[in-house]
Every structure is written in C-alpha cells, then in structure tokens.
Amino acid sequence: MPRRTMIEAIRDAMDVSMARDERVIVFGEDVGFFGGVFRCTQGLQAKYGKSRCFDAPISESGIVGSAIGMAAYGLKPCVEVQFADYVYPAYDQIVSEAARLRYRSNGDFTCPIVVRMPTGGGIFGGQTHSQSPEALFTHVSGLKVVVPSNPHDAKGLLIAAIEDPDPVIFLEPKRLYNGPFDGHHERPVTPWSKHELGEVADGHYTVPLGKAVIRRPGAAVTVLAYGTMVYVAEAAAEETGIDAEIIDLRTLLPLDLETIVGSVKKTGRCVIVHEATLTSGYGAELSALVQENCFYHLEAPVARVAGWDTPYPHAQEWDYFPGPARLGRALVETMEA
Q: Where does the record place the Transketolase-like pyrimidine-binding domain (predicted)?
C-alpha cells in the first residue's frame, strides 16, 4: 500500500473527490497557483483548471460566505482557511448561515461545504498561528467537526466530509502534516517519529464520520485524545507502563459516545488530553458525558490535561503543549486515586 504524509493524503482526497464529482471545487487564500501555504492543494489547479481550484481574496468571511451560496445552488465547495486562527471573521457565516441552512429552509436547502483549517502548534507560531478552536464549533448544532490523527484517516475522513450533505469543520493538526509526531519528545529535538509516512490506499475510500477507534487496547484507564495528542497519549502510556486504553475520537461532533462509555465502564478510570486551553475546552464536555454515563463505574475522578489558560509566547510553545511527562503524571495520579 502506498505510504504518504498527511499533506499528501489530504491532497489525494481532494484529487479523488474532484475527479469523481465535477461539483467539487476548491478555493481559499493561496490554494491555486501557489498550492497552499502547506502545499495541500499543490497541482490541483494545473489538473482541474482555474474554475475548480482558485485563489480567493484575503477575506475569510467572503470565502465561507461564497461557499455557502455555491452549496445552496448545488456545488460542493471544499475551502481552506489558511490557519485556524484566521477563521474568526468567518465565524458568523459558519454559525448563522451554514449550520442553520437546513433547518431554516425546512430541508429545502442543505449546505455541503467543508472548511479545512490547519490547527494547533508545531511551527512556533504562538498565539496567532497555533490556536486550537475546536470547542467553538462543537458547541454549534448543525456542524460536524473532524480532527484526523494519521494520513489514512485524513484521506478517508476528508472524502466522507466532502460527500456529506451538511457543513463539516475539518481541523488538520500541523504537527502531523509531515508524519505522525513522536510523542516521547517534549521539544522538537526530532520532530517526526519512526513512522514518517502512513499507509494510504489509492483511489476512493471513506472513514465514517462519528466513529472513534481504539488505538491502544488497555484495561487500567481510558485516555480520550484526538489529533496530535493521540501520540502523546501513546508515549505517556509507554513511559509510565500503565495499561491505558487510548481512544482516538477522530470526529468530535457527532461524538462516538458508545465507544467511550464502553471503554470507561471497563477500565473505571478516564483521563482526557487535548492541546486547546483547559477552561471550557472540549475536554470539559467529554468529562461531563463520562460522569453522566459512567458515574457508578468510576474508581477515580475524571482528569483533564490541556494547554494553558493564557496566550503563550512563541518561545514557550513546547511548554504550553501537554507532553508525555504532564500526561504521565495525570495517569499515575488517576491510578493512585
């Protein structure tokens, strides 16, 4: 099976989708001739022409607003916001228009758009290029929110998102763009792990939205993670020797609560890790759901490990991130509780 980086897998997903369906169009800032700041769209304009892959003005609200109008009239736009930090001007369009179009039209219109965004840290971008805003979207009814952790899932989830009749927020962890992150390292000494490429099948396939996967079976404690934090969780389990069951959520909305509840009822303990800030982060919702559904099976309080509740300077990026040491301490404390 071919081995690809996440960038190549995402590009392949758009290529496959554009080849199968002429209604699929790709646009955003610098995605046409330049191929995107991370080169995720490289070559698509040359292959499909400027009418199906093109550059947009520097206006996130304009990009998403145009995509909503195109979707209402039968197209399937897959748009790129250059960094997740730039999405805020488009937030009103996403929340007030895209998420509500099906309901407001009584089903007469749907909004099959995908909004792709590089998210999280890894490039020393600090507070203006490294934010993780997933909780802002999981609060909104009518959206789907996806965060892949590896190339295979990235391609399958993106194709599924493009084919979905409703709006999908597709968050791409920057630290995973060129290969799975080596979670053992607290700082970028060797940024990419032993598996630089992932196995990604050629052609069309999908990974279902709303379905988590168990990355590491275990019996002692359940770790809920997504994106880059899946690898941090694996590293923490290995370094502490704790028999942790690691669940890669993949889709945050809709959430695969069945897999989570089944695991926590088995282990009796739960630790949640994410890169975003702690307060009102997505981990708070996960913690509440675990408590509501697994209270009588819990042997210890649900623990959360997350980023700081403050903007962070560029130079402190790797202290801000939850690493295996910080997560490891939480695992040990949870086991001892």
A: 4-179
CB contact at 8 A, 250 and 149: yes
pTM for the predicted model, two decimal places: 0.94
> Residue 311: what are its φ and ψ, rounded to 5°?
-60, 150
**251-279 confidence digits (pLDDT tens):** 999 999 999 999 999 999 999 999 999 99
Residue 197: phi and psi, rounded to 5, are -125, 155
Q: Mind listing the pLDDT tens digit for each residue in 189-201?
A: 333 344 446 889 9
Catalytic residue flag (residue 204): no
**Residue 164 and residue 278 in contact, taking contact as beta carbons nearer than 8 Å:** no
The tally of CA atoms less than 13 A away on the side-chain side of residue 336 is 7
Q: How many CB atoms lie within 10 A of CB 267?
A: 22
Tell me which of 129, 152, 184, 274 is the catalytic residue.
129
- Domains annotated on the chain, with CATH: 3-199 (3.40.50.970), 213-336 (3.40.50.920)
- Asked if omega into 254 is within 30° of 0 (cis), the reply is yes
pLDDT band at 20 (very low <50, low <70, confident <90, very high): very high
**Arithmetic mean of pLDDT over the chain:** 93
